[in-house]
Design goal:
Elements: E1 2-10, E2 21-24, E3 28-39, E4 48-53, H1 60-66, H2 73-84, E5 101-106, H3 111-116, E6 120-133, E7 139-154, E8 164-174, E9 178-179, E10 182-183, H4 190-204, E11 209-215, H5 219-231, E12 235-247, H6 248-251, H7 254-257, E13 261-262, H8 267-281, H9 292-305, E14 310-315, E15 321-329, E16 334-339, H10 344-350, E17 357-365, H11 367-385, E18 389-394, H12 401-404, E19 409-418, H13 421-431
Parallel strand pairs: 1-4, 8-11, 17-18
Antiparallel strand pairs: 1-3, 2-3, 4-6, 5-16, 6-7, 7-8, 9-10, 11-19, 12-18, 12-19, 13-14, 14-15, 15-17
Length: 447
């Protein structure tokens, strides 16, 4: 074990009360402090570790200059895009790759990611290149790892007004750069050190619950996360989920497309959608968007960035909502490519079905009506945006599990880390349905 430090930048100084700060006129004051942590990596060089609110990535050149690193913002963005696009490998315990590895190429980084979650803390690891300086004498570096800690609040139960803070980790990526054929960041455990920063942030901000999702067959990362949870004296838990994909030109229906009602800008109907959703998901573990105002904040950011993201509903003869969802056009955010697919995913790749994706967020309604809604949405996005795949995430206990099921699917794991076992057990028991399924909140606008 060794000690490293990370540079923590934050807006709320009420707890740490530090003096060091940067004044960004457009965004405001950003305070900073170096924090020492214990690390398990075997990387021999220096690592400059940063934890920064996502909206300040636009000012990251100033932060780089502060730490004597070359302050070319576009180069930093380009390197981040490259690391984020590293394939997520779903690999089982035998070392055999699963059905699907994928690469996500985000457009307009970091604005696209910021529009989904403006409360994310970005954690990056930069590896300075030995004896290499730019024309101004600043250290050149490589981006070794990139991760998000997305901040959220959840309600412990549907009757409570209490809000408990948590983190949702995503975009967990480590560079695949090689020296002499060996992956210099992956094989030396840089991921474990970045994860150490993530877990230290829970201590800095008094957070006791975090979760992440990953491919079920990605045994390497599962094993690493379990080890890290144990190393840092945290408890952990796993739940199985599944990412289903419908092929829009097979799944879609003209009949139901013609019945879709666009409620994208209809605040009254959106509030009805929210209330119906809260009635369904209010007892789910880690239930987020505890108020309509909270939901609307994220929703408005999404539709402001993605003009083709729409909210649709179906109605009965009296105009009452029978089913509704928000259809998020992931194609506005990213290009999604499969890497070395197996089984049915070979056909998916051959037909280029994953070039653009649409995703169902905040589904409500009776099962039969939701089936009609999804078929209408499939047809709408196939006809208007040439989107070929409709993503429907599910799990045991999901009321729409049958409607969402598909032969094209990717098993996933929902991984929880916590340090309050008694309270956590209460959350689990409260969230169970009549069949004993622990219902978990997976309804974020993007995984």
């Amino acid at each position: 074990m060794k000690k490293r430090k990370y540079h923590y930048f934050f807006e709320d100084n009420s707890k740490l009360k530090v003096q060091e700060k940067l004044d960004f006129k457009q965004n405001g004051l950003l305070y900073y402090k170096d924090i020492e942590i214990e690390c398990f990596d075997s990387y021999e060089g220096d690592l400059e570790l940063f934890a920064v609110p996502i909206k300040y990535l636009h000012n990251f050149d100033t932060i780089l200059a502060l730490n004597n690193l070359t302050c070319d913002l576009e180069d930093f963005f380009d390197q981040c895009r490259e690391v984020i696009a590293v394939p997520e490998k779903h690999q089982n315990e035998k070392g055999t790759e699963g059905k699907m590895n994928f690469q996500a190429y985000f457009h307009d980084f970091p604005t696209s990611l910021e529009s989904i979650n403006d409360k994310a803390i970005v954690v990056v690891a930069l590896a300075p290149i030995k004896k290499m300086l730019d024309a101004k004498g600043k250290r050149l570096y490589k981006v070794a790892a990139y991760v998000h800690a997305n901040e959220f609040n959840f309600s412990p139960n549907i009757e409570s007004e209490e809000l408990i803070p948590g983190y949702y980790y995503n975009m967990l990526r480590v560079s695949e750069d090689r020296v002499d054929g060996k992956q210099i960041y992956r094989r030396t455990g840089v991921f474990s050190t970045v994860f150490g920063v993530l877990l230290d942030l829970t201590k800095q901000n008094d957070i006791h619950y975090v979760y992440a999702t990953m491919g079920k067959e990605n045994t390497k990362i599962k094993t690493a996360l379990v080890k890290l949870a144990n190393d840092y004296n945290k408890k952990h838990d796993f739940f199985s989920t599944i990412s289903n994909s419908k092929i829009t030109f097979l799944h879609g229906s003209n009949k139901y497309r013609n019945k879709l009602i666009d409620i994208t800008n209809d605040t009254e109907q959106l509030e009805i959608l929210y209330n119906k959703s809260h009635k369904i998901r209010g007892k789910y573990m880690f239930n987020q968007f505890s108020s309509f105002k909270d939901f609307l904040h994220t929703y408005n950011r999404v539709i402001s960035y993605s003009k083709s993201t729409k909210a649709f509903m179906l109605a009965d003869k009296n105009g009452n909502m029978t089913a509704a969802c928000v259809a998020v056009n992931w194609g506005d955010y990213l290009s999604f490519n499969l890497d070395n697919p197996k089984g049915i995913f070979r056909l998916v790749e051959k037909l280029k079905l994953t070039n653009k994706l649409v995703y169902a967020w905040f589904t409500v309604g009776e099962e039969r009506e939701v089936d009609k809604l999804y078929k209408g949405v499939s047809k709408y996005y196939k006809d208007n945006y040439n989107i070929k795949m409709f993503i429907l995430n599910s799990y045991d206990g999901d009321p729409y599990q049958k409607v969402k099921s598909s032969l094209i699917n990717d098993p996933m794991n929902y991984f929880v880390i916590h340090d309050r076992p008694k309270e956590y057990q209460k959350f689990k028991e409260y969230s169970k349905d009549e069949n004993g399924n622990v219902r978990i909140f997976i309804d974020t606008a993007m995984l």
